[in-house]
Structures are given as C-alpha cells and as structure tokens.
Amino acid sequence: MKKIPYINEEVANRDFKYYIFDWDDNILHMPTKIKMEHLEEDGSWKPVEVSTSTFALVRSDSKHYRAPGGNWNNAFVNFEDHPGANTFIEDTIDALEKVAHGDKPGPSYNALRKTLREGRLFAIVTARGHSPSTIEKAVRIFIKYALTEEDREEMMSNLRGYRQWLDGVGDGEFGTDSEELDYYLSMCRYSAVTYSGFKERMANDPIYREKLATAPTAAKPELAKEFAIRNFVEHVFHMLRSSGSLNRSVSIGFSDDDVGNVKTVSTFIREELSKRFEGIKFVVYDTSDRSLSKGRKVCVSGQLNLPGF
Ligand SMILES: [Mg+2]
C-alpha cells in the first residue's frame, strides 16, 4: 500500500479539471420507477410502474400507455422529494449495493470516483426534481460505498493540498476530516432542473427568462441543463479568478447518456460558452452507448487529446 501524505502538496502542480455529471444511467442505473397507466384487454387503464429505460421505449406508445389520469405531473412523483420519504437516497443505496454485488455501474461511475479521489470540483446536473441538499446527501453515500478506505484517505490528502495551496491554510489549521469534506462538497454544485427552487432561479435570470419564453415546451429541459452548466462554469471561473489561478490550463468535462442533451449542450458550448470563456477547454462525453466502458469522447473545444480522464 502506498504511503499517502497528510497534505498532498503535489496538487499545486496539477492542471485544473472539473466535471459536470448527469446522474441517471450516467453514474448509476437507478431503480426509480415512472408511474403510468396501461390499457388492459377489457378496456380499463391499470396503474403500472416502468423503469427509465422502458419509459424511453413506451412514452410514444399513447395507444397502450398514458400518464396517471392523463396528467404528467403524476408520472414523476418518485423523482421528487416528499416529506418523510427518501426515495432518491434509498434508490441510490440500492443501485450502489447492486454495483457492490457485481452489477455494471453507469459509464461515468469511475470518472466520478476519480474526481472525488482527486478532490476536484464537480457538478451534478439532473432532470430530477430534488433539492440540492438531497443530491449532496446522495454524493456522500456514493463516497461511502464507491470509494475504498484508501481512496478516501487520498481524497482528504488532496483536499488539504488544495486548501493549503489556494486558501493558504497551514498545517495544524485544518478542520476535522468531516469539516474539510463539508467545505469541499459545499464548493460543488447540485442542480436538479425540475426542482422548484431551480426553476425559480432560472425564471429570475434575465437571459433565461427570455430564452424560456420563446422555446418550444420540448426544448425546456435542455435549456435548464444549459442554465445549470453555465452557472457551474461561472462559479469555477470566479473562483479561479479570485485565487489568481487563471494562467494555467483549465478544462471542464460534461457527461450525459441522453443524446438530445449531448447535442444541445455541445451546441451551447460551441456557440456561447467557448466564446465567453476563451481559455477554458470543454470536453463533452456522450455515454449513450452502454457497450463502451467510458462512453464516447467528443471534444468540442480545445486540444484534441487531453491527458487521461
Ligand atoms: Mg441520464
């Protein structure tokens, strides 16, 4: 076993790499079910629950499937927070247990593990409707299940390294491991784009209020992902500027298994973000093909071959 230093001072020589992850079928295959109704032979509609992958197949079969009572708001109740229920947390534990017992995780599972181990900032951007604190909780559970004890020790060593380098925290001044972890996770971003608080923020943004007003309904989820990505890139940019670190190589990766999102986000990066943030390299990973272990890598802007993911 390699010796892990208490403070990894080597992080000061690293390039800046940040990642934005979609959650469902990108990090984990979640057991969360969508509520629908199925047309029976006797002509009655019977409630059924379908997986996200089945939903993709039956959503357009309106002859045999419909939203409960015809109302789509009732279909995704398991993708939201409800008082006294922790569906997202329970489903995350369930999915992680399955991985621990040999099931294949999502294509970006190992990329999130590595991001956490290296103590790099990241954002979770999902179409779900949970509060940021619910998603942060799920990330803590991911750390517990998916990282080994050695990985977690390495993560803490890297986190202290960044704190020393960027915040000037000296040896002997660090908080407890749990305080340092809290600080790190508070610097990351958790955006569920159908959460009421998120929708409100988006409606109050002058640019996105305008974009929303003119977009067709079907394009709204993608717009929301754009908004979440822009917020994270701005967050990273301001942080780097205030620490005087904009003179080194910065790259931001985005991974999603939904080809529609990949397409919209790629266009958004090419046409807007890469022009506004000229020094930043953006890399988009299309993870829709489950037969590839790390998903397909698509470089949108910057160098063609970035060193290892
Ligand atoms: Mg997904």
Structure keywords:
3-stranded antiparallel beta sheet, 309 residues, single chain, 6-stranded mixed beta sheet, binds magnesium ion, alpha/beta
Topology:
Blueprint: E1 16-21, E2 34-39, E3 45-50, H1 52-58, E4 65-66, H2 87-100, H3 109-117, E5 122-126, H4 132-146, H5 149-167, H6 177-187, E6 189-192, H7 196-203, H8 206-214, H9 220-242, E7 250-256, H10 259-276, E8 280-286, E9 296-301
Helix pairs in contact: 2-4, 9-10
The protein binds magnesium ion.
Report on this model:
This protein has 309 residues and is an alpha/beta fold. The chain has two domains: 9-26 and 104-301, no CATH class; 34-79, no CATH class. It is 43% helix and 16% strand. The chain contains ten helices and nine strands. The strands form two sheets. Strands 6-5-1-7-8-9 form a six-stranded mixed beta sheet, sandwiched between helices. Helix 10 (259-276) links the parallel strand 7 and strand 8. Helix 2 (87-100) packs parallel to helix 4 and helix 9 packs parallel to helix 10 (259-276). The longest helix is centred in the C-terminal third of the chain and has 23 residues, at 220-242. The radius of gyration is 21 Å and the shape is globular. The two termini are 23 Å apart. Mean pLDDT is 90; it is low at 303-309. It binds magnesium ion (MG). Magnesium ion (MG) is lined by residues 22, 24-26, 257-258.
